[in-house]
Design a protein that fits this description.
The chain contains eight helices and eight strands; from the N terminus they run H-E-E-E-H-E-E-H-H-E-H-H-E-H-E-H. It has a six-stranded mixed sheet. The protein has helices at about 25, 70-75, 120-125, 130-135, 150-155, 155-160, 190-200, 220-250, and strands at about 30, 35, 55-60, 90-100, 110-120, 140-145, 170-175, 205. It is globular, with a radius of gyration of 19 Å. The two termini are about 35 Å apart. Strand 4 (about 90-100) and strand 5 form a beta hairpin. The protein has one domain (about 50-245): Rossmann fold (3-Layer(aba) Sandwich), CATH 3.40.50.300. The model is unreliable at about 245-250 (pLDDT under 50). The chain has about 250 residues and is α/β, with parallel strands linked by helices. This is Ciliogenesis and planar polarity effector 2.
C-alpha cells in the first residue's frame, strides 16, 4: 500500500529561515555566519523566556559506495566536505540541529537529527551493523548519484530491504547527489519522474558544489522534518484509535 505523503509546506512553514521571526532560532545554530558544530551531547541553548522543545530522530543513510553519503551528512551539518572519497570503515554518526515552525499553531521545535552513515563493504562484512542501524530508526535516506546509473538502478533493491512488518513505520526519501554535474549526468529526468510515480517516494536533489548558506540545505531538511512530523501524527492517531478500540471491548 502506498504511503500517504504530506504536500510540501502543508505542515511546516517552508523557507522559514528567510523570515524575520526565525533569526533568534537560526542564530543558535550559527557561529560567525557559519554553521556551529555540535557534539553528541550538545544542543542549541535558547534564553529562558523562549521555551523550545527538541524532538529527536534517527536517520540512516543508505546507498552504494561512492554516491556521497558521508558528503551529504557533512553538508547537512554544515561541516567541511571531504575532498577525497574514502570508504566509511564502520558506523559514523553526525548530529544536525534544525529549527522548524509548525504551520497549524506556530509552535517552534528544534529537530535533532542523528545521521547514521555506514560503509557498504562494512555492512557486507559485519552482520551486526545493519541491525544496529535499523534499531529504532525513524527515517531512511536512499542515495543515488546522477553520475552513476547503477546506483539509481539499485534503489528498488535498497527500498525493498526496508519494507515489511519488522521495520515498522519509517519515513523514506530518495536523494540524488551530484545533480549539478550536467556533463556527466547518467540518469534522465523522466526516469526520476517514473520512479517517483512507481514507488510513491519523494526524490530530492543536491549538487556537488559547496555553499555556506542555509538555503542550500533547507529544502532537504524541511522536507525530512515535515515527513517525520507527519509520521509521528499518524502513529499517535493510530495508537489512540487502537486504545479506544480496546476500551470499547472491555466495556
Amino acid at each position: 500500500m502506498a504511503q500517504v505523503l504530506p504536500s510540501s509546506g502543508s505542515i511546516i512553514v517552508a523557507d522559514w529561515h528567510r523570515c524575520k521571526d526565525s533569526k533568534e532560532y537560526f542564530n543558535k545554530i550559527l557561529h560567525k555566519k557559519r554553521r556551529k558544530n555540535f557534539g553528541l551531547l550538545e544542543s542549541p541553548v535558547m534564553p529562558p523566556h523562549v521555551a523550545v522543545d527538541t524532538v529527536h530522530y534517527k536517520i540512516f543513510l543508505s546507498g552504494k559506495s561512492g554516491v556521497g553519503k558521508t558528503a551529504l551528512a557533512a553538508r547537512l551539518a554544515g561541516s567541511n566536505i571531504p575532498n577525497m572519497h574514502y570508504e566509511t570503515t564502520g558506523i559514523e554518526t553526525t548530529v544536525v540541529h534544525w529549527p522548524v515552525k509548525l504551520r497549524e499553531n506556530g509552535r517552534v521545535f528544534f529537530f535533532r537529527l542523528q545521521l547514521w552513515d555506514c560503509g557498504e563493504n562494512a555492512l557486507r562484512r559485519f552482520d551486526h551493523l545493519l541491525p544496529a542501524c535499523k534499531e529504532q530508526v525513524d527515517a531512511v535516506l536512499f542515495l543515488f548519484s546522477f553520475t552513476d546509473r547503477t546506483s539509481f538502478d539499485d534503489l528498488s533493491n535498497q527500498i525493498a530491504k526496508w519494507t515489511g512488518a519488522p521495520v515498522g513505520r519509517v519515513v523514506k526519501l530518495v536523494v540524488g547527489t551530484k545533480f549539478d554535474l550536467f556533463m556527466h549526468c547518467d540518469v534522465a529526468e523522466r526516469d526520476v519522474t517514473n520512479f517517483q510515480e512507481t514507488w510513491s517516494v519523494p526524490v530530492l536533489r543536491v549538487g556537488g558544489e559547496v555553499s555556506d548558506g542555509l538555503g542550500d540545505v533547507a529544502p532537504l531538511l524541511n522536507c525530512l522534518a515535515e515527513h517525520l512530523w507527519h509520521q509521528d501524527c499518524v502513529t499517535a492517531g493510530s495508537t489512540r484509535h487502537h486504545s479506544q478500540q480496546e476500551t470499547a471491548t472491555v466495556l
